[in-house]
Design a protein that fits this description.
The chain is built from 14 helices and 4 strands. By secondary structure, it is mainly alpha-helical. The strands form 2 sheets. Strands 1-2 form a two-stranded antiparallel ribbon. A hairpin with a 3-residue loop joins β3 (115-119) and β4. α1 (2-26) runs antiparallel to α2 (47-61) and α3 (66-88) runs antiparallel to α4.
């Protein structure tokens, strides 16, 4: 009976998303165009909320890992924060403080990182008294970093698809939590289809802050879950988030250097440069950025598997330098392109 309910929810998801788009348009639940937005028309931004509702329902009617389910249940507040932010634009400080609540709850209920794994030559990296604050800062920063890359059609969905496909690949295939990952991937694929529909269709939809914040929250705690409860080493897991972390560090450095207000969004992200290079072609930008993401993840995985975990960490830190160099090259290409 419960399995039938789950199957029915999977079948109904595209239809429910379609209906939610129509209702949202009637209620004017849309992402308004402005000077910092790429789109020029009102776009419905509720697909992230719909994904969460169906994911929560799937978890409620089926027996999965209770620890893993706790991530999704706690994610309700994250989705609510994102949905409110989509409607009223919360102050960044207020949003940050609200995000700390579900994060601390999970950390205090089995998701605190006590160490960062065992490595060649240096043994286990213990966090000691800093374990709680380290876990909190890591999660909050990664949530914000992933939210940063939500700036062009399908990019954050593509990132999430790659990350959770990688988590599936790293996991042993007889674990119940993998069913949740498969269901989540399925929902994201449907959302990606609607995301790339033309605006003129009237059915185009974004995941919104509700979706991007939940994706960041879900990625963060899935990584902790896989290390603490599935013994998948962090040296493998970190490669799932190299892109948002590198972009976050680069943009943060630029904002400090040029004294730009952190509370004001800008167009200095990697995807903005790529989008400009491809003359605002969102699909080419999606393919290019996600292809690079997949390639780097594969390289990082192979280094960790074949050469060693400590070398994976060193490479993760060192690759930030060519990333910055790559950004500078692209800026020069854009200048020449605009000049011509």
């Amino acid at each position: 009976m419960l399995e039938n309910q789950l199957i029915n929810s999977l079948i109904l998801f595209p239809f429910f998303l379609y209906v939610s788009i129509l209702i949202s348009k009637k209620l004017n639940i849309t992402d308004e165009p402005n000077i910092r937005k790429i789109h020029n028309t009102k776009i419905v931004n509720v697909s992230g909320l719909v994904v969460y509702i169906f994911l929560a329902f799937a978890v409620s009617v089926t027996e999965f890992s209770s620890i893993f389910e706790n991530i999704i249940i706690s994610g309700f507040l994250v989705v609510l924060i994102g949905f409110i932010d989509d409607r009223f634009t919360l102050n960044p400080s207020t949003k940050l403080l609200l995000l700390i609540l579900p994060t601390v709850y999970l950390i205090l209920n089995g998701f605190e990182l006590k160490d960062l794994g065992r490595y060649e030559y240096i043994d286990v990296i213990q966090l000691g008294k800093f374990s709680l604050i380290f876990t909190l800062l890591s999660v909050i920063l990664l949530i914000n970093a992933i939210n940063y890359i939500d700036g062009t059609d399908g990019l954050v969905i593509g990132y999430a698809l790659t990350a959770f496909s990688y988590f599936y690949f790293l996991s042993e295939q007889n674990n119940n939590y993998l069913q949740v990952i498969i269901i989540f991937i399925y929902f994201l694929v449907i959302c990606l289809f609607f995301n790339f529909l033309p605006s003129s269709s009237g059915l185009k939809t974004f995941v919104g802050d509700a979706g991007s914040l939940f994706i960041g929250f879900f990625v963060s705690f899935t990584m902790i879950f896989l290390y603490k409860y599935q013994n998948i080493h962090p040296a493998f897991l970190i490669w799932s988030c190299w892109f948002p972390i590198y972009d976050f560090l680069y943009v943060t450095y630029n904002r400090i250097k040029y004294r730009i207000d952190f509370s004001k969004p800008d167009k200095s992200h990697f995807h903005h440069d790529i989008l400009n290079y491809f003359f605002n072609n969102h699909f080419k930008t999606f393919l290019f950025v996600n292809s690079i993401n997949v390639i780097v993840i594969i390289i990082g995985y192979l280094v960790c598997l074949i050469i060693g975990k400590i070398y994976s960490l060193v490479l993760f830190a060192a690759l930030f330098i060519p990333f910055v160099y790559f950004r500078l090259i692209f800026k020069n290409l854009l200048k020449k392109q605009n000049y011509n």
